From TrEMBL:
Name of the protein this chain belongs to: beta-glucosidase
Organism: Entomoneis paludosa
Entry EC number(s): 3.2.1.21
Reactions this protein catalyses: Hydrolysis of terminal, non-reducing beta-D-glucosyl residues with release of beta-D-glucose
Pfam families attached to this UniProt entry: Fn3-like (PF14310), Glyco_hydro_3_C (PF01915)
Amino acid sequence: VVVVLSNGGPIEMPWVDKPKAIFESYLLGEAGGAAIIDLVFGEQSPSGKLSESFPIQLSDVLADKNFPGTRDKVEYREGLDVGYRYFDSAQRAVRFPFGHGLTYTTFSYGELDIELHEDDLKSKLVNVSFDLTNEGKVAAKEVVQCYVHDVSASVYRPFQELRAFDKVLLQPGETKRVSLLLSYEAFSFYDIGVKDWIVEPGSFEIRVGSSSRDIRQKEIIEFKMGESASAAAQASYPPRSYGVVEEVDDEVFSRRFGGTVLEAIDRSIPTNHAVVNRNSLLKEVSSSSTLGKFLRWVVFKGATNDLKPGPSFQRDQKLLEAAVCNLPLRTMVLFGSGMLSFELMDAMISTMNGLYGKAVAEFFVALIPFRKKATNRSIEYSPVPIEP
């Protein structure tokens, strides 16, 4: 059994050990089916790599505890620990690592040959070369990946960061020389104190492999020249041991954010008294005002007009209801074919917010264009008297 996935992002796969193989197709176009057949049945060799880590479960993602947040605010407290940077730094197990991808052959990586050029503080160039060999019996492509690990940083940096990659086509038994160029930016970090990118002097480990968890070759280099991190940078991101998950409380997040955190994330904050605006969802306004309920009903009725009775009627109706509930008010104007203006929508928003005086004035302003159109239409189509 081969499972073919068609999805927009990582999913939980507790059944991962049951199929013989899993083929990740993501979201393909109309010719995707033919491509899948060629790849699954060996007419072509797969050559893709995952551009994201697949966690074992959703709760393994560091940002999970802060989502969806409150109605008006989502705090990205994970900071630099996003995706593979977090999983590799926390040394946390994943279902499939960033950069992972199999094909119908195997590749071997030769020893690294590194050329380092360091002219001054801001001029650094590292050329990483190695031999890549196709050890199998079919032609295939390998995506070689080069990660950089800052060994002696005075601030916290993710354990490793992808800094270069290349896709190489090799025939059976063929060997090619691969070269990857790392510039100043590959070793730098943004210092919030000096408001610029800097590279500290010290040791860096060059790590080359087939994924973030499949490193085949590595070697240490050293920069003798560099800049020291500012006190602000060190206070914002002090160094810490890898394998430790940092709890970012209000104080730490405020220091990194550069301002005061108004409130901690609280999923239980009620939303029925929130101020309505153009980005408010229909499900939000329908729970707080009669007009909001009416707007939701109108949009839902319009969306379901073309549904035909049948086995899937209730399922399709439920799907449309979920879609309608999550529509922002502004989409009623954008998809309204000119029947509704933003001025008229603003008047309804003021009504839902209880600002009735403002709403009356906005209704009057919103109706002026319609009155002008009606007048112009009557002039345009008024009959011309025929002289005898």
